Amino acid sequence: MKFSKNILCIGAGYVGGPTMAIIALKCPSYKVTVVDVNEERIGRWNSDDLPIYEPGLLDAVRAARGKNLFFSTAIPEGIRAADIIFVSVNTPTKTFGLGAGMASDLQYWEKTAHQIVTYSEKPKIIVEKSTLPVRTAEAMERILSENKKNIHFEVVSNPEFLAEGSAVNDLLEPDRVLIGSQQTESGFKAAREIAAIYAHWVPIEKIITTNLWSAELSKLVANAFLAQRISSINAISALCEKTDADVAEISFAVGSDTRIGFEFINASIGFGGSCFKKDILNLVYICRSYGLNEVADYWEKVVKMNDYQQERFVKKIIKEMFNTIVAKKIVLLGFAFKANTGDTRESPGIYLAKKLLEERAALVICDPQALENARKDLAGLEGEVVYEPDPYRATQAAQAIAVITEWDVFKKLDFEKIFAGMRKPAFVFDGRNILDHRRLFQIGFNVFPLGKPSLTHF
Ligand code: UDX
Ligand code: ADP
After folding, report:
1. DSSP character for 382?
2. Do 260 and 399 have their domain in common?
3. Residue of 20, 44, 90 best suited for mutating to test ligand 2, as the one with most atoms within 8 Å of CB
4. Does ligand 1 come within 6 angstroms of the Cβ of 399?
5. pTM of the shown model
6. The domain that contains 237 carries what CATH number?
7. pLDDT per position as a tens digit, 422-446
8. Does ligand 2 come within 6 angstroms of the Cβ of 14?
9. Number of independent structural domains in the chain
10. CA 371 to centroid of ligand 2, rounded, Å
11. How does residue 306 score in pLDDT terms, banded at 50, 70 and 90?
């Protein structure tokens, strides 16, 4: 079949895979190829055992794969054939050198830019999908324009706003699609071409075009605002635990103000995920590099509050369990950074597990999707860790349960049965406030919700 356009995506991860699956599904006349250096990952995209868990994704992939959606490791061939290249390689926080722990590590991204220059034989639109520091497009343009072949590359920023666990829906019905381009004739033309892809299924009024730098910065700011709401309510949860206020009631009362709204004000053990912390630290780094120290300090506090919330949770477990958890069996219900994903990047579960192991607790980790990643995250740590997908087996002879992830399955567990199998006194620390605390207390548990009065039998 002759396709009207060749789209390539470099990087078959959480962003690239689902985004391209939906583009392929909605644009049958385009050929969409996703390439990655990781052979195993590509192998899994070509199977029914996809490398990431995302509700609805397998159906979308199956519907398009082999027709107009292809997964491959043939990067040079892919680049040569492409009219449009989406770049969605990983841009983790730097762990070394200048800006370590703050700035983005752009080595994968830069390598990609060089590969594009090396293998291209015709003009292309290059789309930044990965979250990148502001003005990265400028660096990308510089690398691309150094080609000796005189090929024109137009760089466009099209940041991804999908959230894991609801990625398919977020892609099918986005609040907005943001496209940033140079404010030149060729920039506008490229933006129109990218908009035309999304216009296959997104109402035109939801497709926003801006200048390149606004698009790049909007992504960081959107994530910073969302994370800031969580840190704000988490700060209040600490105060609630000192008073008799209930943080869920406060969220409801405050969120009922339509100017505030209910989203992202659920108190938790802290936000995780690959984006929030990274993007805020990036923002902080950029502000500092422009000498805007007050602005940098302001946003850095959002991350510090998130660290504090996790520390607070661990300290509470230790204190309430009589200041020692040595050899006590503690079950982490959930390990993913949020429900409906197997992703554990920056999950508070990692911090918690490490701290509990340092205190020599015997840990059991129970999660419907994240055990494979949990094993990798905790590999090499000293101490006893058991990975058990079945919550009933996991809690046998345990002393405490700590809810880390708000999976629906945990809400529906038979806690009488669980209580019967646990050592007494039995504790529940609900880091997500998803359980029926009064009911648990009646069963016999000592219950420690987050930002609410505790219910104990002592
Ligand atoms: C986020 C943004 O939502 C998305 O737009 C962007 O493209 C990528 O980063 P994601 O990290 O997948 O998406 O998940 P999100 O739903 O935003 O949750 C992030 C973290 O905040 C999770 O750990 C979640 O449990 C936590 N959270 C969320 C809370 O603790 N309380 C809330 O009220 C909402
Ligand atoms: P994200 O959450 O941003 O999608 P992931 O880590 O899930 O990040 O995915 C990024 C993908 O990019 C990984 O599968 C990685 O192997 C791939 N990748 C990194 N560098 C390159 C490169 N130069 N060429 C092709 N793929 C790359």
Report:
1. S
2. yes
3. 90
4. no
5. 0.93
6. 3.40.50.720
7. 999 999 999 999 999 999 999 999 9
8. yes
9. 2
10. 21
11. very high
Domain boundary among the residues 139, 167, 202 is at 202
Take residue 432 and report the two structure tokens written for it. 């997500």
Compute the distance from residue 11 Cα to the ligand 2 centre, in Å: 4
End-to-end Cα spacing for the chain? 73
**In the sheet where 30-35 sits, what is the strand order?**
69-72, 30-35, 5-10, 84-87, 124-128, 153-157, 177-181, 207-211
Cα 62 from Cα 161, distance rounded (Å): 23
307-332 tens-digit pLDDT: 999 999 999 999 999 999 999 999 99
Testing ligand 2's pocket by substitution, the residue of 8, 34, 35, 36 carrying the most ligand atoms inside 8 A of its CB is: 36
| Catalytic positions, written as ranges | 275
Whether 369 and 299 have beta carbons less than 8 Å apart is answered as no
Distance (Å, whole) CA 333 – CA 401: 7
CA distance 16 to 325: 42
Residue-wise pLDDT tens digits, 239-252: 999 999 999 999 99
- Residue 242, burial from CB neighbour count under 10 angstroms (0-12, 13-18, 19+): exposed
- Tokens 């730098």 sit at which residue? 213
> What does each C-alpha distance from 66 to 12, 71, 255 come to in angstroms?
16, 9, 46
User: Strands, E, within 261-418: which ranges?
Assistant: 329-333, 362-366, 385-387, 400-403
- The residue whose CA is least distant from atom 6 of ligand 2 is 90
Are 135 and 38 part of one and the same domain?
yes
Model confidence over 51-102: pLDDT tens digits? 998 999 999 999 999 999 999 999 999 999 999 999 999 887 777 887 787 7
Cα 246 to the center of its chain, rounded Å:
28
Quick check: CB of 251 below 6 Å from ligand 2? no
Q: Which domain holds residue 105?
A: 5-202
List, as one string, the DSSP characters of 393-447.
HHHTT-SEEEE-S--HHHHT--HHHHHHHS-SS-EEEETT--S-HHHHHHHT-EE
Pairing of strands 207-211, 30-35: unpaired
Per-position b or e across 158-197, b if 16+ CB within 10 A of its CB:
bbbbbebbbbbebbeebeebbbbbbeeeebeebbebbbeb
